[in-house]
């Protein structure tokens, strides 16, 4: 298999890419890289009615953000292009006509009104659904029931027609899915699908097969929702005479809602309390904004690491993988058949792990951006100190600001429970000396902050444990947070002394 693997990701630009789509792209990418193969992207835009402006750009940006590099795409063409089906239009009709000539497809002239009337009649009279299939096609208006001259005349007079696949009557269709094993379907359960529409455009099925073949795709890795179409696709390969070069199929398990009940859909976004899109999406039709992982503060590597484990596992306990490691250990054999429950808490856990080892300078830049947006001025060194104090304690970069506003704001309120438990006359006595000591310090840093306190406590014979939480309360307003002495250093001696004095005044009722 090495070196000649060609996979494709084939999204339709009908809206923002769902995280399920990103996972499909990621698995294709990992598989291609693992085998030294090629990954291409094909835009499946034959259905112009469903075209959404901006969707293609969104797909590009989302894949770039996730680090899913494409070897060939509309934006980076190779020699298998064009990469948009709308630019390949002419190719499809030729194959549909070829199938008609060989008796494997036929022209059908039934209007949609006629067909929907038939559908209604069937449902009403027989209580069953109507299918344009091997039985029905002999009673309908098509080139199987009409003379060649009649067909010719209709076509020449410009009567609209479609081309339908003539599904063989008694045939067992077999395909071996790399994840699911053998799938066997009888042809009587497949209707005579339209291949070419009245406007000359191909349907998804025809275009998808013709393109996969012409582009030399060796492995079709896609979502489970396409499994029901796979037998039809096998039939198409056989009809077109390409059975020997048919790609292998791997249908990925569905992404399920956190409850495990039902598929995680595009509409679930935000309703369940988390995003279902990689990037924020501004709907051009109704102006609605859906949130995205990037804007929510996820790091791209954490996000893709999380996605890689949705439906795939290495079989070990390891969860954190670099992209290179994922490429190394990824295999289709270890993809599960059953749906993967989406666990947003796990996504957050991944982000936290990645944030811990994220370069502090880069995180500081992000923090500075937040501060700027909040109208707070801060120099890089100070921001960096705060960032390193907070880095291990946050899930999202934005929390460096939101969880530690005390770096820029004097507490307006104090945690009453902590005050009740810890604030007392002894504490106030120590802090009165401490505030004065701090104010007079020559070089105030975290060591000095501590030494000054230790000295006062020693003189008074009081243990450190008796005052520490109260000091934190006076400085930050709450009972927990990052290492306190470095916080004091960042705030500086005047601010520390002033906050202590404010707290002594405001908490006087607890003494
Ligand atoms: N255009 C289809 C989609 O939007 C592609 C399905 C396939 O990969 O064959 O998902």
N- to C-terminal distance: 78 Å
Q: pLDDT under 50 segments (min length 5)?
A: none
The spatial strand order of the largest sheet comes to 3-4-7
Helix fraction, binned, reads: 40-55%
Number of helices, counting only DSSP H or I runs of 4 residues or more: 20
- CATH topology name of the largest domain: Rossmann fold
Number of strands: 13
Q: Catalogue the ligands.
A: glutamic acid
Find the CATH superfamily of the largest domain. Answer: HUPs
Q: What is the number of domains? A: 5
The major β-sheet equals: 3 strands, antiparallel
Walk me through this protein's architecture.
- The chain is mainly α and 511 residues long.
- The protein folds into five domains: 117 residues, 3-Layer(aba) Sandwich (Rossmann fold), CATH 3.40.50; 108 residues, Glutamyl-tRNA Synthetase, Domain 3 (Glutamyl-tRNA Synthetase, domain 3), CATH 3.90.800; 91 residues, Glutamyl-trna Synthetase, Domain 2 (Glutamyl-tRNA Synthetase, domain 2); 46 residues, Orthogonal Bundle (Helicase, Ruva Protein, domain 3), CATH 1.10.8; 101 residues, Arc Repressor Mutant, subunit A.
- The protein has 20 helices and 13 strands.
- The strands form six sheets. It has a three-stranded antiparallel beta sheet with strand order 3-4-7.
- Helix 1 packs across helix 10, helix 9 crosses helix 11 and helix 18 packs across helix 20.
- The longest helix is centred in the N-terminal third of the chain and has 16 residues.
- The chain is elongated and about 110 Å long.
- The mean pLDDT is 96.
- The structure holds glutamic acid.
- The site of glutamic acid (GLU) has 7 residues, from loops.
């Amino acid at each position: 298999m090495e070196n000649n693997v060609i996979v494709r990701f084939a999204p339709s630009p009908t809206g923002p890419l769902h995280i399920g789509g990103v996972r499909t792209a990621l698995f294709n990418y990992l598989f291609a890289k693992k085998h030294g193969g090629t990954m291409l992207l094909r835009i499946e835009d034959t259905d112009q009615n469903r075209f959404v402006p901006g969707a293609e750009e969104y797909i590009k940006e989302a894949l770039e953000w996730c680090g899913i590099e494409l070897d060939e795409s509309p934006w980076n063409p190779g020699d298998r292009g064009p990469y948009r089906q709308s630019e390949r239009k002419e190719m499809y009709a030729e194959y549909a006509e070829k199938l008609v000539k060989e008796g494997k497809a036929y022209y059908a002239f039934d209007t949609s009104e006629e067909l929907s009337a038939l559908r209604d009649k069937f449902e009403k009279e027989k209580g069953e659904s109507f299918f344009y299939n091997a039985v029905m096609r002999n009673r309908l208006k098509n080139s199987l029931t009409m003379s060649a001259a009649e067909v010719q005349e209709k076509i020449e007079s410009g009567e609209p027609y479609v081309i339908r696949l003539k599904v063989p009557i008694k045939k067992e269709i077999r395909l071996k899915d790399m994840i699911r094993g053998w799938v066997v379907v009888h042809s009587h359960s497949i209707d005579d699908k339209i291949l070419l529409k009245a406007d000359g455009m191909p349907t998804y099925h025809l275009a998808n097969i013709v393109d996969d073949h012409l582009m030399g795709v060796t492995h079709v890795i896609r979502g489970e929702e396409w499994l029901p179409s796979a037998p039809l696709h096998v039939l198409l390969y056989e009809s077109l005479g390409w059975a020997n070069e048919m790609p292998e199929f791997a249908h990925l398990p569905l992404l399920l809602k956190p409850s495990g009940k039902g598929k995680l859909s595009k509409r679930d976004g935000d309703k369940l309390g988390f995003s279902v899109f990689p990037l924020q999406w501004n709907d051009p039709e109704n102006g609605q904004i859906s949130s995205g992982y990037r804007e929510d503060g996820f790091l791209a590597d954490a996000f893709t690491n999380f996605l890689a484990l949705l439906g795939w596992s290495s079989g070990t306990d390891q969860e954190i993988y670099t992209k290179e490691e994922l490429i190394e250990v990824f295999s289709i054999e270890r993809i599960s058949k059953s749906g993967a429950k989406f666990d947003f808490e796990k996504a957050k856990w991944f982000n936290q792990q990645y944030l811990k080892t994220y370069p502090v300078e880069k995180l500081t830049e992000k923090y500075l951006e937040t501060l700027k947006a909040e109208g707070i001025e801060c120099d890089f060194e100070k921001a960096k100190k705060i960032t390193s104090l907070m880095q291990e304690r946050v899930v999202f970069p934005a929390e460096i600001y939101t969880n530690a506003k005390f770096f820029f704001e004097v507490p307006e309120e104090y945690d009453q429970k902590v005050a009740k438990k810890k604030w007392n006359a002894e504490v106030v006595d120590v802090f009165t000396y401490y505030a004065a000591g701090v104010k007079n310090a020559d070089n105030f840093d975290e060591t000095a902050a501590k030494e000054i306190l230790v000295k006062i406590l020693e003189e008074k014979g009081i243990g450190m444990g008796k005052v520490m939480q109260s000091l934190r309360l006076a400085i930050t307003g709450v009972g927990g947070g990052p290492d306190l002495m470095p916080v004091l250093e960042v705030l500086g001696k005047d601010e520390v002394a002033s906050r202590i004095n404010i707290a002594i005044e405001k908490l006087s009722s607890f003494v």
